[in-house]
Amino acid sequence: MIRAEVKNRDYRPGQEIDYWVATLLPNGSVSHRFEKSRILKVAGGGFFGRFLFLEGREYGIKTTQPTPLHALLRQAAWGFGEFPSQVSLEAAQEDHLALNLISDVLPVATGGKFYSPGSPGYTRLSTGYSQLVDEVRNGRPPRFYPVNEFAKFKEA
Questions:
Q1: Which of 23, 98, 147, 155 has the fewest CB within 10 Å, making it most exposed?
Q2: DSSP percent split of the chain into helix, strand, coil, nearest 5
Q3: Would you list the DSSP string of 16-33?
């Protein structure tokens, strides 16, 4: 198991970042390409981490660095151990595959009612492994009111 060295970092709009994009191919090999992007916006920061919107890209980077409060909650949830998706190459690869499986299967299983973004790859930043996630421009997460769409989404 390959583990990442993790450092805290404060991502900011306007900041330029360099990263390698790794993508799992159907034959089991991994392709790599180098990218350089400027951060347009930083959003989220919940349990799993912040999302970096990137200039000129159809994807953003879902980091595994949460806000300090969420980091504490996540540490407690993981028994004060390391968060696999942040430190483990194998977990990053599994997350990449899972995102794409969900993206491929969900619209078919729900007759087009629900969809989920795919992952063009994963990377390792100084904050740990991160997923590249397709941006969703015309969509929204399930709502709880006036109808609990989350229950329907979970059932699907």
A1: 155
A2: 25, 30, 45
A3: EEEEEEEEE-TTS-EEEE
| Residue among 130, 125, 132 nearest 5 (CA) | 125
pLDDT score of 156: 67
Q: pTM for the full model? A: 0.85
Q: At 97, which helix (H) or strand (E)? A: helix 89-109
CB-CB contact of 114 with 102 (8 Å): no
pLDDT, tens only, 22-32: 999 889 899 99
pLDDT over 90 percentage in the chain: 48
Q: Domain locations in the chain?
A: 16-155
Structure tokens that stand for 43 in this block: 């959003």
Q: Which residues contact 42 (CB under 8 A, 6 or more apart)?
A: 11, 12, 13, 50, 51, 52, 53
